[in-house]
Amino acid sequence: MVVTDQGPTQRGGRIVFLSRSPLEHHQLVLVEGRDDAMGVGLINQLSFRLSSLKDLQTFNEIFKTEGVRVDRTMNHGNAWSIYCYDPEENRLELYAGSPWYIAQPCAEPLDLDESEEVLMAQTEALVRADPTFMLKADWAKRQAAAVGVDPATIDVD
Hints:
CATH class: Alpha Beta
Helix content: 10-25%
Order of helices and strands: EEEEHEEEEEHEH
Low-confidence stretches: none
Strand content: 25-35%
Mean pLDDT: 89
Number of strands: 10
Shape: globular
Radius of gyration: 16 Å
CATH architecture: Roll
Distance between the termini: 22 Å
Largest sheet: 8 strands, mixed
Structural class: alpha+beta
CATH superfamily: 2,3-Dihydroxybiphenyl 1,2-Dioxygenase, domain 1
Strand order of the largest sheet: 1-2-3-4-7-6-5-9
């Protein structure tokens, strides 16, 4: 795995994103500086990629109906996420990738009750204002080289 991003957390620790895939921003996330309420381990969450923002909105509705404990919903610019807990209190992330990339961490509030069109427009405005902005396809080519994959062999779509 290679480090895809890293930086300070809102709680004062450091967060590191790692991936072995040229198409996935992160497959493992490590974080330091966690307090007792979050636990003492370095693994921040297990992440599960969904196909679309609409799928994420569907899970949000299911979680409300089923009473799943949601920690928060976030707009990361490169993805939209729901952070929740499984029955054993492990933190999970369900996320859908956006067509854009900006350096992480980026953690803006996300209202999944908004329409898909509104969320796309809000996210595009967020990422285009960031100096690290690039299209996901361009980021994937850069990431492919970092993990030792020929960029010509990947299909971002």
